[in-house]
Design a protein that fits this description.
Elements: H1 9-12, H2 33-41, E1 46-51, H3 54-67, E2 71-79, H4 84-94, E3 100-102, H5 104-112, H6 120-130, E4 136-139, H7 147-157, E5 160-162, E6 165-171, E7 175-180, E8 188-189, E9 197-198, H8 205-208, H9 210-217, E10 224-228, E11 231-233, E12 250-254, E13 264-267, E14 283-287, E15 299-311, E16 318-322, E17 327-334, H10 342-345, H11 365-385, E18 396-407, E19 413-419
Parallel strand pairs: 1-2, 2-3, 4-5, 4-8, 9-18
Antiparallel strand pairs: 6-7, 10-11, 10-14, 12-13, 12-14, 15-16, 15-17, 15-18, 18-19
């Protein structure tokens, strides 16, 4: 076909340019024998047929494929003609002689068990399945985490298109879970199984759950005691009459929840701990650190130290990035070891200014940032070296999360937990 008008179309039009491993067949005669030869060589015995002109090219293709014993399914919505009456007549009376006429909905049932009618967006997306353009595809399946925000930013960036969802499976307790239409693997999706890049780390539960992270946090975490099934696991806290046991409050935290103060109980002494637990829940218990580093006016603080952790497609190369801004959380009231109120003891109030610009605390920022970076790097390194965090072979993965650090007056920093789905933006001031 070289030298004929249109022969360079496939190489110059990016929307229909062939991808790797695509087969291009030029029909040189009325009967598409070249197509039949290709299908036989590839041992293909069933095809889904689309295209136009319905009364000529599609009909001829159906006939020759049927004659060769190849099963033909024509997708009704994906066949066109320049004459509507002829199109309907061909679809209703001629093509059924040679093969099955199915709808997009029936095809998607075969692909992924999709129920219900297809929306206009879904039909347009199916067109991309057959002949994708140069847009990258993002799919928001509604999974908890930062996926929706990431996809919003990708769409705003340009070059990305939103891909629709279908029901993946349903859970009696948790409800329905979505996946990309046709269970297609797209460029980015918040469900790792359907994404070319996974936004959740493999093994993230060892960072997220407070009783599991103890294993590799080491000296950065205050002495921590664990409760499971209503009983202490391992060491127990000291009794009330032991030295220092009632000098600072005790925190009882549900191991698998990160709900701020909603999942934390505060008591004055060890003997009160077991009064605040449920037998079917796991807990970690810690006493407040000595001499916390306060603001100049005496309020308690801690840092939400944001990081980005990436593992490459080889499954062994990890890179950790730390955010210099961080988020400073400050209690609204002065700290006292005898005050058990949540406002005083649980610093969930996010300060609107950067730590480096916060009056009454900014003088500590450079030192605390460097220590927090060092501590976070060591802890993540231990999680990787111990095999708790694992790479995904042939799939890049990443996650944005935070680490809660609290400095004290002696220059130490204390780590309390990782937050695997932390707030990544604050509402802009009005």
């Amino acid at each position: 076909m070289e030298g004929w008008d249109g022969s360079n179309m496939l190489s110059t039009n990016p929307k229909i340019a062939p991808r790797d491993n695509d087969h291009i067949v030029w029909r040189s005669k009325h009967i598409p024998n070249e197509l039949v030869e290709l299908l036989k060589n590839e041992s293909i015995n069933k095809v889904y047929l689309v295209g136009g002109k319905a009364s000529v090219s599609v009909q001829i293709a159906c006939q020759v494929l049927m004659d060769e014993g190849i099963e033909v399914c024509v997708i009704r919505e994906c066949v066109q003609d320049d004459n509507d009456e002829r199109l309907q007549a061909t679809l209703d009376h001629v093509l059924p002689v040679f093969g099955s006429i199915i709808t997009l909905e029936q095809l998607m049932e075969v692909w992924g068990g999709l129920g219900g009618s297809l929306s206009k967006d879904s039909q347009q997306s199916f067109t991309r399945l057959i002949s994708p353009d140069d847009m990258l595809l993002a799919c928001d399946c509604g999974r908890r985490g930062h996926g929706s925000r990431f996809i919003q930013l990708l769409i705003e960036r340009g070059g990305w298109s939103m891909y629709p969802t279908q029901i993946w499976y349903e859970d009696f307790v948790k409800g329905s879970f979505n996946c990309p239409l046709g269970k297609k693997v797209v460029d980015f999706c918040d469900e790792p199984e359907f994404s070319k890049v996974a936004m959740f780390l493999n093994g993230r539960e060892y960072l997220d759950e407070k009783d599991k992270v103890i294993e590799f946090v080491g000296e950065y975490m205050p002495t921590t005691y664990c409760i499971e099934n209503g009983k202490w696991v391992g060491d127990e806290p000291p009794t009330d009459d032991c030295e220092g046991a009632i000098d600072a409050p005790w925190f009882i935290k549900e191991s698998d929840k990160n709900l701020g103060g909603a999942a934390i109980e505060i008591v004055s002494k060890p003997s009160e701990i077991m009064q605040h637990i449920k037998n079917d829940q796991r807990y970690v218990v810690q006493q407040h650190i000595r001499k916390p580093l306060l603001t100049d006016d005496g309020r308690k603080t801690h840092l939400k130290f944001y990081v980005l952790l990436i593992c490459e497609e080889d499954g062994i190369t990890w890179t950790l990035y730390t955010y210099r801004g961080a988020l400073l959380c400050i209690s609204p009231t002065p700290w006292s070891p005898t005050d058990k109120s949540h406002d005083t003891q649980i610093t969930i109030h996010r300060h609107p200014e950067k730590p480096s610009e916060t009056e009454g605390w900014k003088q500590h920022w450079v030192r605390v940032y460097e220590k927090s970076k060092q501590g976070t790097t060591e802890i993540i390194g231990k999680a990787i070296d111990s095999g708790k965090l694992k790479g995904r072979k042939n799939k890049k993965q990443f996650e944005v999360f935070s680490c809660d650090w609290m400095p004290d007056e002696n220059g130490n920093i204390w780590m309390f937990e990782f937050n695997m789905s932390p707030a990544v933006a604050q509402e802009s001031p009005r």
